[in-house]
Amino acid sequence: MDRPYVAVIGAGQATPEQERVAERVGALLAEAGAVLVSGGRGGVMLASCRGAYERGGTTVGLLPGADRAEGNPFLTVALPTGMGELRNGLVARTADGLIAVGGGWGTLSEIGFAMRLGRPLAAVGSWTVSGPEAGLSYPTVETAEAAVSLVLRQLS
Amino acid sequence: MDRPYVAVIGAGQATPEQERVAERVGALLAEAGAVLVSGGRGGVMLASCRGAYERGGTTVGLLPGADRAEGNPFLTVALPTGMGELRNGLVARTADGLIAVGGGWGTLSEIGFAMRLGRPLAAVGSWTVSGPEAGLSYPTVETAEAAVSLVLRQLS
Amino acid sequence: MDRPYVAVIGAGQATPEQERVAERVGALLAEAGAVLVSGGRGGVMLASCRGAYERGGTTVGLLPGADRAEGNPFLTVALPTGMGELRNGLVARTADGLIAVGGGWGTLSEIGFAMRLGRPLAAVGSWTVSGPEAGLSYPTVETAEAAVSLVLRQLS
Amino acid sequence: MDRPYVAVIGAGQATPEQERVAERVGALLAEAGAVLVSGGRGGVMLASCRGAYERGGTTVGLLPGADRAEGNPFLTVALPTGMGELRNGLVARTADGLIAVGGGWGTLSEIGFAMRLGRPLAAVGSWTVSGPEAGLSYPTVETAEAAVSLVLRQLS
Fold first, then answer.
1. CATH code for the domain in which residue C19 is found
2. A35/A12 Cα distance (integer angstroms)
3. Which residues of C touch B90 (CB under 8 A)?
4. Nearest CA in chain B to C87
5. pTM score, two decimals?
6. I need a surface site. Which of A60, A85, C49, C112 has the fewest CB within 10 A?
7. Is D140 in CB contact (< 8 Å) with chain C?
8. What is the three-state SS of A30-55?
9. pLDDT, tens only, B90-109
10. For residue B117, what are the CA distances in angstroms to A6, A14, A114, D49?
11. Would you list the DSSP string of B16-35?
């Protein structure tokens, strides 16, 4: 894949440590030439976009509301979908792989979508889940470096 | 709420026990006068619709594809959305409460959406999840009766 | 087709004559055993639903907002999509045929969708359009009877 | 508005003259610093993207299918929505203004959406429409220059 699209998913309210990881994920994605997709708002979304944007990366925000000004300041392209939380499915759909950092219920919906669609996914300090049958899982890693490396390897 | 809308979510491939629970959930919802919303296909979706339909309940199927014939035979209303898996968000959005029976990754996406939207949710033999911070959970119950009772009580 | 789904499209603010036609369309659809799909709100949408509902027909409302209470009182099933005007595409997508009565810009978007999807469509006192090349047209009729007859004939 | 987003809408099969106009529209939008939004495929979409891309403009393609490779080669960002023709609504929703060049039924749906949302719109050799009441219209112009100038003026 020439230029992979990787979504960084996580909550709009994040801890300083989650923001630090997200910013590093964004920076590494930009350095690898990936396009960063996100929900385009604050917290993990903003931090990852900042990390990518400041290194010249391309960042896409799929906003839930109808107002482009909702987007964070580090978006190359800000798209107000007006679809509310349904845009979470669009984030997973339009990305080739995903990295979850922390996250709330919206992030869990994106994880479900991503796995349903067979997208490579890595989680850092995010949800752990246990399905009704064996074998339903995704990898948990400790660092931004491990997450980016794991996802990009599967997309190359 | 006059007539609550309750989604029954779960996999298109289900075990006999999951189908038995789902059918009972459907029957109880119909007896309570609720409208049953689902993804409209097989497995847990079909079993719950059958349970409701045979007791005169109203069942709505939000189908992923563009062909109404994809729907199971127990739908009062079958709507081919053509939105693919994005229709999962629509299932959660259009229901007042949700009951998960077993389920795969698509079900997890619906659980995430439902909780993000603050919908009452009960799970029977479904996903258990652990969030990045404390307090992110939904109730797990053992029987169809407990699930329906728990959700309808919060909608009354 | 056992039970065709026909959308009645038109503006939320309608003239008494448009409402009269829409109500008659709804009544005829119910008598023919069709399911009536609409945007679920006022004006032409409400009048057509009333016509169908009072004759025991099934009526489905795909609402733009997130609140079921937005729906008119003549809906068998009211689905708040939370997708805003994007739900117009869903109205065309989920119907087998469409009947336009009067209408504003939203109705024009639904006409475009319906024709793009190859759905049979009849218009009563609605938009007339002229495309950039020849042959892009849909039939205009004078009465509710002619519209219902024209669409149902193509769906049988 | 710092950097307006303008959609160029039109058919995937276009005449040489329509492609010439579309390419010029794209070039003018890029020179004005606008972001070009489109359905991301061939014909008018491709020609407008080429015009913008070759002048260093940013081009966004909202693709109907699930495969990024459907996009034309002149997209800064290609997003496979998997929503089918429903993505037409997203094109109108995410743009601040729109320019129609020629076009088929999908273009008409986008025109309806755009006008419903109150977006500035200019049409070159595209649909002309006549609504059920007076005053429902948008401007028709003769040249790419006039279209771009008309839309950008309303967004400044």
1. 3.40.50.450
2. 20
3. 79, 81, 83
4. B81
5. 0.97
6. A85
7. no
8. HHCCCEEEECCCCHHHHHHHHHHHCC
9. 999 999 999 999 999 999 99
10. 25, 19, 19, 38
11. HHHHHHHHHHHHHHHHTTPE
